[in-house]
Amino acid sequence: QGDIARAIAFWEQSLEICEQIGDFPGKATILNNMGLEFAKQGDIARAIALWQQALEIYEQIGYVQGKATILNNMADEIARQGDIPKAITLYEQALEICEQIGDVKGKAHILRNITLVIAQQGDMAKAIVFSQQALEIFEQIGDVKGKAHTLNNIAGIIAQQGDIPKAIALLQQALEIFEQTGNVKDKAPTLNNMAGLIADQGDIPTAISFWEQSLEIYEQIGDVKGKATTLNNMAGVFADQGYMPKAIALYKQAALAFAQIRAYSDLVTILSNLGVADESNGLVYLAQAIWLTLRIPTPLADLVQLICLLYNRVPQGDELEVLLGAMAVFLCIHQGKGHPQLKEFQELSGNIILDAASVQGIETQEAFNNWFIQQRLNDPKYFLPRLNQRLEEIVGDGWVFERSQVVGG
Description:
mainly alpha, 20 helices, 0% strand
C-alpha cells in the first residue's frame, strides 16, 4: 500500500521475536522479505546486505534450499544493476544447489530467470534452450503458472528476434492459462506485454484495448506499480505517434503512482521520459531525475544517458554544464570498473567536460588542468552539493514527489 516505514517497523518487531525464541529460519525469511522490499525501493546496497545476513543463517543451519532462493534473489537485482557476469555466477550457484538436492521446481525457476539475463547478453540461442528446459520441467511437474511465465519469457526473446506473430501466439497461450486458473495478477502483465507487441505491429486501437484491460485489473487488485508501468507503456506509444499532450498526461499519472509507492528507480525512468516528451518543462523533470540518482543506486548506463539529456537542455554557458560534466567523470571513475561500455562512457563524459570548458574560454590542456582544479571539479564534496543545489533551483516548486520521503532528501 506504499506505507514502507510501517511495514519495516512490523518486520523489525518480527525479527526481534525470532531472535528471542531462536527461530533462525524465520529470521532468515524475514530478512529475505525485507531485502526484496528494499530492492523494490531502489536501495540495492541495503537489500544485498540483508540477503547476505539471510545467506549466512541458511549456511549455519544447513538449509541449502533457502540459500538457493537468496542467491537467486541477489542475482535478479545484480543483473538489473548491469553486472551480468556476477549475476550469472550467482544463478549458477543456485542451480547447482537445486540439482544437488533434487529441487526440480527451483531449478526450473532459476533457469527461467537466467534466461532473461542470457538474452540480455545477446545469446538468444542459449536463452531459448534454457527456456525450453524450464518449460519441460514445469510441464512434467504440472506447474501451469510456471509454464505460463516461461511462455511469457520465450515470447519476449522471440519478439526481440523479430517474430512478433509467434511471440503474440505464445503470450496468448500464457493468457489462456492465467484465465483458466483465475490468476488475474499475472493476467494483467501478460495483457500489457501483448499490447506492446501489437502496438509494434501498428495496431494501436487494439493495443490500447489490451492496456485498458490490464489497467482495470491492476486497479481492482490495488497493484499501483503494475498500473504505473502500464501507463508508462501507453504513454510511450502516444509519444511515438506524436500525440504529446496525451503522452505527457499519462507519464504524469505514472510518475505520481510510482512516487506514491516510493518506487524511485522506476520514477527516474518516468521523469526521464517526461523530460524528453515535454519540451516546455523537460528541464524540470530531468533535474528531478538526476536529483534522485544522487540518492539512490542507479545503473551507470542510465546515469550517463540522463546527464547527456539534461546537458543538452541546459542553456550554453550555464554553470550546470560544468557540474554535470564533473559528475559524469566522477561516475566513470567510481562506478565504471569492469563495465563493458566504460570506454564509451568515458568518451561521452570527457566530451561534456571539454565542451563546458571550451564555452568558458578554456582552450589549452594546461589551461584546462588549472581550471579543473580551480573550479574544484576534482572534489566531489564540493561539486556534488553544488550540483544538488542547482538542481533544486531549477525544479523550484515543480516536484512530483515528496523529497522528505527520499533517504537523504
